[in-house]
Design brief:
single chain; 352 residues; alpha+beta; Phosphorylase Kinase, domain 1; Aminoglycoside 3'-phosphotransferase, Chain: A, domain 2; 2 domains; 9 strands; 11% strand
Length: 352
Amino acid sequence: MFDKILPLYGIQPAESEVQLFGDGLINHTWKVTTKSNGYILQQVNQSVFKKPLDIDQNVSRLKSYLSKTHPEYLFVSALPGLSGDSLIETPEGYFRLFPFVENSHSLNVLNKKEEAYEGAKQFGRFSKLLNDFDVKQLHITLPDFHNLTLRFDQFARAVENASTQRKEKSKDLISFIMAHADIVTIYKNIVASKEIPLRVIHHDTKINNVLFDQQNKGICVIDLDTVMPGYFISDVGDMMRTYLSSANEEETDLTKVNVRKDFFKAIYDGYMEEMGDVLTSREKGYFIYAGKFLIYMQAIRFLADYLQNDIYYGEKYDGQNLNRTKNQVTLLEKYLELEPELEEIMGKIAIQ
């Protein structure tokens, strides 16, 4: 395969070393090393991204805008092949080649609040720099990705059609989801009232989508396939969901699932350092809600998949999606318990 693809970029396969790279779950990714340069080669997963050209156009438009307005920002985008195209179609699928950013690294696990601060700052900076970009120019690369109304409706149908056995095993989780349906109601009101604006939102703010330098300072954000119009609660919420607990979503020992208040403060500090003058007062009022929104949505997605016999996420062992749901429900419970303290943290920062 590489013998056919690398020459499309003027790279000689015989003079290159190719290795699998990273822990990404969506696209296949390899590091390509030549005598003079390093690259990241990626195959777009068309079962997830149905229209790869839409991603390519989005990135091209953002690159053009930032190169004029903020040329100092490191915007990591695909390199053109010999044809001049940055997205190359082959019989094996669509491919892109990115420059490898030397002296940089990404993290898969957050151990320090300073890392959470840097990550939040970088995602905030990304949206801030694109604040005046016309969001209508962007394609929706994943339709309804963070549409909580739709996700809840899908969950309700899954409950209705589930086997008696799976419904019985998850009855307490179903009850919890239904008891907190006010989170859906708030989302519906946000959409219907148009009280907060659509922005250029990354939509996948896990820490491994931030590049760090050798001093562990954030450089820029990467993996721009999900960049599209959205609400700021998507980016902040995904950081809450994936930064706050020292245990990830696969942890089955629920005593390890926690909410680190100092990491919450780090997210708030980092994001608001960039977006504090950009967000409206209404948006700022939804900062804590953002965490509820995303954790709740991921819980119902895992549970809906379990009730539908694991057709979307699949499972590596029996009951994995049920355990993932328990994990996210536990995280949400602890987040809700701490809400008054989180509000106090935000209040103290605002006073300062």
